User: Fold ABC transporter substrate-binding protein from Ramlibacter tataouinensis.
Amino acid sequence: MAGSLLASFALGAAAQGNAPIKVGSVLSVTGPAAFLGEPELKTLQLQVERLNAAGGVLGRKIEFIHYDDGGEAGKANAFAKRLLESDKVDIILGASTTGATMAMAPLVEKAGVPLISLAGGVVIVEPVKKWLFKTPHSDRMAVEKVFTDMKARNLTKIGLLSETSGFGQSGRKEAQAVASKYGIELVADETYGPKDSDITAQLTKIKNTAGVQAVFVFGLGQGPAVAAKNIAQLGIKLPHYQSHGVASDEFIKLAGTAAEGVRLPSPALLIANTLPANDPQKGPVSTYYKAYKDKYKEEPSTFGGYAQDALALAMDAIKRAGSTDGEKVRAALEQTKGFVGVTGVFNMSATDHMGLDLSAFRLLEIKGGEWVTVK
Assistant:
């Protein structure tokens, strides 16, 4: 009897050892945030395919389970519940947006399953939540990178235009919080809706504000491109800044010539072909850029880069943990040091579940329809 029980246990352990590593994701592949979710999904599918072709991780294949929340927080919550209770995933990557991520947060915290978000809001990791991590730079970092450049150009009186989405309003809050630190005064503070097709009224107010020296637009999707076109139409000749929420070629396509001269913080991916050979990110950035372009015959976006890093960090943590046990993987993520990714060099800790500093951002300007590093 004891022998048969021992044999049964051994068979069960072997089966578990060979079981696939279940990676779940909830992304906005359709809807208003599809420009985020589509490249993220393509990236994860590409990299899971490559990992499995190389034998998987810990000798186990990766099973990728994906749901599309359409940019709706309620759907993200429902899909997270399905991933945890029905699919029984080992780790979750997503969501694409801050609002959707926060709708999933209580579920993963209760279940004890690590989640690596692909969204920008600082609220995801501040205050630190035991099971939540993220790969994109935070909105606060974006604001600080922009304000640093403004200060260097003696631009101290700013007109802020932010979207009423979670990302835009978080960016607005961070801009208000750190402006005085950089000697910046927000002399105009206007907002617009994510579906607005005309923002001239708000921009006219900014234009007519006494002393305004620059315009800073904080938003996602088509809104920032609408703002850029309206700025050009109104003849506003002030320095024009955007956030990392538009750090992709899609912004240039949408804004056209109105994008000329726009400055924004961005990961290194947008300048992959001009990174110097001694740049520590040259290898990871170039490898991802080539793999994505070869597979999909299109330029990768920074948003896909966030997904690339999330999966790579997850697999690195699982390897170091030697297991898919939630607590061991979570601890390994917290102990990530010197991990050179597409987005930057990650150094996480118990008090920092993002692990990036301002050096992970490059300040870029659009010149002649191309991305150029601001020297």
About this structure: The chain has two domains: 2-136+283-356, 140-266. Residues 1-16 have pLDDT under 50 and may be disordered.
